[in-house]
């Protein structure tokens, strides 16, 4: 198994008793009407039954023994006769119902919804029940997504390189589109539909205006046509200066009449090719990208230009809040809030502000972004990064559901206790009906899509959480393991334990106790706490850890940058007083002496060392967990993961040694008793800097 089939591998069910029951229940598929979406559902069920049970599902219009009945009340008289309206009425456009019932005296399983796409989601849910070997008795599933737009952001360039992509080149073969439709596009769409993802931004946030030209729009339309029956809308990134670059105008000022007219025409044109085009995701005035501030206009002026032109077509604009400025010397963690908070209420109704989970940049651990809850009059969406830019690329095994959940479950307290980030994002806290979530894709044209076999779990968990953020990391790991590898308890238990611990372990060996942004320069791979003297202070590591002979950490309390003041009072109380601040955010909010006494009684220095050693040692534990499943999972997958875990273990020691030696050069304190001294010298680790990552792997 090369991993191509993802979690939809449909391996044959070994448990004979389960298979027997399933075979009896799944002989006939009844679909009374045809549509492209229903045909996809039909084919998927046929494929699943063939793979899981080795039998053929007969599709037709007549009920028989072992029938699965699919339909909407509108398209299926049999479904209409079941009078499911009360339940269906609460399920919206995408929700579904799965239940056991009987039709004209024949017992059957029904998947019903208000739309064909709802049926498709219900179908994938039903297949998941089979893959995870759930009982088909007393089925009663009614499910509807909590967030409306569940989107992947591809940072894919038109030359097929992928910014921060570690799984090959872009899936989008722009050169051969629109005439050649790679069969892989359909598999991409299937995978997304199976977890409820309903939108994809095809292009990099660092945008190229060429995508908005006619030849490219025809290519985009071909993808949109293919994705449509899977319930997936296509979105693009818009380069703010496009009116100048491809429109020949002297300015891109969002209030200039010619500029507005240019965008209006361009957007109208897009809708002639793609009538259900989703809209734009825009990065402006950030890291050198052009934006409204080039013309002394605000982010709201910029976003509203697009919102105005997209509104007649029901399109939306997702305006990113990832901004930090060269000229501003204030703490980078504060800048998005400083710029956006005053604009609350100034955005048009079809504009959302897209906010990264934390205030800096997708670090192994960050507290939630202070904008969540702070802009009640603006729909905010959260942006997670599935591609592991700061988490060891596609080489380290890091199951990210706990990271997503940590943010979603965080309490902003902006409307009292229980004002969770998830409630800001799903619109329930501030009563927004336009809701969205974005995940920066970890997908490329590697045969196994994501590079690391376990990176698929992050795509999976992201989609499932976008649908229902109340699902637990554990439940999602459980499902994914069963669907991807095996239903055997001897596989599930160690694999799940390894997955669930992996993010915390990674934090320990990379950035424990609230440290952040101390990785290699530019490529962001490997340790680089010594990085300094770069074009911007906030591109260095020393800016973030502030280590000196006295102590370490970024003081973000009132005695420092006071970034803490951007949070609600209750949050300030949690992280401000040292007595309350949890270890995980200690050095994020505080600069502390090396001898500071931790709650455990040990010194900060000792605690830091212990964290690094625990983290690195735990990667050996991960190896042991995985070794225990040998011969119980596919051999090719086993060997692949095993090799990557060996690299991860070596690199965890690399992180540990480099960071301990570096911080020791300030603390001047010994590595605590019982821990072996790091091998090599600090100079050696510094010499491992390389321009492209991953480069030479350290050997000691
Ligand atoms: C940073 C990446 C950079 C992205 C930027 C963004 O290093 O490549 O362009 O985020 O999100 O994490 O715009």
UniProtKB/TrEMBL annotation:
InterPro entries, A to Z: A-glucoronidase_C_sf, GH, Glyco_hydro_67_aGlcAse, Glyco_hydro_67_aGlcAse_N, Glyco_hydro_67_C, Glyco_hydro_67_cat, Hex-like_dom2
Which keywords appear in this protein's UniProt record, sorted alphabetically?
A: Carbohydrate metabolism, Glycosidase, Hydrolase, Polysaccharide degradation, Xylan degradation
GO cellular component, alphabetical, reads:
extracellular region
Domain spans labelled Alpha glucuronidase N-terminal: 6-126
Look up the domain of life of the source. Bacteria
Domain spans labelled Glycosyl hydrolase family 67 C-terminal:
450-674
Q: Where is the active site?
A: 287 (proton donor), 361 (proton acceptor), 389 (proton acceptor)
Biological-process GO terms, alphabetical: xylan catabolic process
Q: Which reaction does it catalyse?
A: Hydrolysis of (1->2)-alpha-D-(4-O-methyl)glucuronosyl links in the main chain of hardwood xylans
User: Boundaries of each Glycosyl hydrolase family 67 catalytic domain copy?
Assistant: 130-449
Regarding protein family, the annotation reads:
Belongs to the glycosyl hydrolase 67 family.
**PANTHER family associated with the record:** ALPHA-GLUCURONIDASE A
Subunit-structure text: Homodimer.
Q: What is this protein called?
A: Xylan alpha-1,2-glucuronidase
Species name: Chryseolinea serpens
């Amino acid at each position: 198994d090369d991993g191509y089939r993802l979690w939809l591998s449909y391996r044959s069910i070994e448990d004979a008793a389960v298979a027997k029951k399933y075979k009896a229940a799944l002989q006939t598929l009844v679909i009374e009407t045809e549509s492209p979406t229903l045909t996809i559902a039909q084919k998927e069920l046929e494929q699943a039954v063939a793979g899981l049970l080795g039998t053929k599902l007969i599709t037709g219009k007549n009920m028989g023994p072992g029938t699965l009945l699919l339909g909407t009340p509108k398209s299926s008289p049999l479904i209409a006769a079941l009078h499911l309206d009360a339940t269906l009425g609460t399920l919206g456009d995408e929700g579904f119902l799965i239940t056991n019932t009987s039709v004209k005296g024949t017992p059957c399983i029904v998947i019903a919804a208000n739309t064909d796409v709802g049926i498709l989601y219900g179908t994938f849910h039903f297949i998941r029940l089979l893959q995870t070997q759930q009982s088909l008795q007393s089925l009663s599933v009614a499910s509807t997504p909590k967030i409306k737009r569940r989107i992947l952001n591809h940072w894919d360039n038109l030359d097929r390189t992928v910014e921060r992509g570690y799984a090959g080149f872009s899936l989008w073969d722009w050169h051969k589109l629109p005439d050649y439709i790679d069969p892989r596009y359909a598999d991409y769409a299937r995978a997304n539909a199976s977890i409820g993802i309903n939108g994809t931004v095809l292009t990099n946030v660092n945008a190229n205006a060429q995508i908005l030209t006619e030849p490219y729009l025809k290519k985009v339309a071909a993808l949109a046509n293919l994705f449509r029956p899977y319930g997936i809308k296509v979105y693009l990134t818009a380069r703010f200066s496009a009116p100048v670059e491809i429109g020949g105008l002297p300015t891109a000022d969002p209030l200039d009449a010619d500029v507005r007219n240019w965008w209006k025409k361009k957007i109208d044109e897009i809708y002639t090719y793609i009538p259900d085009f989703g809209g734009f995701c825009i990065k402006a005035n950030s890291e050198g990208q052009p934006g409204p501030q080039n013309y002394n206009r605000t982010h709201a002026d910029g976003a509203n230009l697009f919102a105005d032109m997209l509104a007649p077509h029901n399109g939306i604009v997702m305006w990113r809040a990832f901004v930090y400025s060269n000229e501003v010397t204030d703490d980078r963690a504060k800048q998005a809030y400083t710029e956006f908070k005053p604009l609350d209420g100034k955005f048009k109704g079809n504009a959302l502000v897209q906010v990264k989970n934390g205030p800096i940049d997708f670090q192994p651990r960050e507290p939630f972004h202070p904008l969540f809850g702070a802009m009640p009059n603006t729909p905010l969406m959260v942006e997670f990064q599935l591609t592991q830019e700061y988490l060891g690329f596609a080489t380290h095994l890091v199951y990210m559901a706990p990271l997503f959940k940590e943010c979603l479950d965080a309490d902003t307290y902006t409307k009292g206790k229980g004002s969770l980030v998830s409630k800001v994002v799903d619109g329930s806290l501030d009563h927004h009906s336009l809701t969205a979530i974005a995940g920066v894709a970890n997908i490329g044209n590697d045969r196994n899509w994501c590079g690391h076999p376990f990176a698929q779990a992050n795509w999976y968990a992201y989609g499932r959480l976008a649908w229902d953020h109340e699902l637990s990391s554990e439940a999602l790991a459980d499902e994914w393991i069963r669907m991807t590898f095996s239903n055997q308890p001897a596989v599930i238990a160690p694999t799940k334990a390894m997955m669930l611990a992996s993010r915390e372990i990674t934090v320990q060996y990379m950035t424990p106790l609230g440290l952040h942004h101390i990785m290699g320069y530019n490529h962001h791979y490997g340790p680089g706490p010594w990085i300094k003297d770069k074009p911007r202070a906030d591109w260095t590591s020393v800016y973030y850890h502030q280590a000196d002979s006295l102590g370490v950490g970024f003081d973000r309390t009132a005695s420092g940058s006071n970034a803490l003041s951007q949070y609600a009072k209750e949050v300030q109380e949690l992280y401000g007083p040292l007595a309350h601040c949890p270890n995980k955010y200690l050095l994020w909010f505080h600069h502390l002496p090396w001898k500071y006494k931790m709650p455990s009684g040990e010194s900060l220095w000792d605690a830091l060392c212990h964290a690094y050693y625990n983290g690195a040692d735990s990667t050996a534990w991960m190896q042991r967990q995985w070794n225990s499943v040998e011969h119980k999972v596919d051999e090719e997958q086993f060997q692949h993961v095993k090799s990557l875990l060996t690299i991860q273990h070596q690199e965890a020691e690399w992180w540990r040694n480099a960071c301990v030696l570096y911080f020791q050069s300030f603390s001047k304190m010994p590595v605590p008793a019982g821990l072996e001294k790091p091998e090599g010298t600090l100079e050696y680790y510094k010499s491992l800097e390389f321009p492209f990552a991953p480069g030479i792997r350290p050997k000691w």
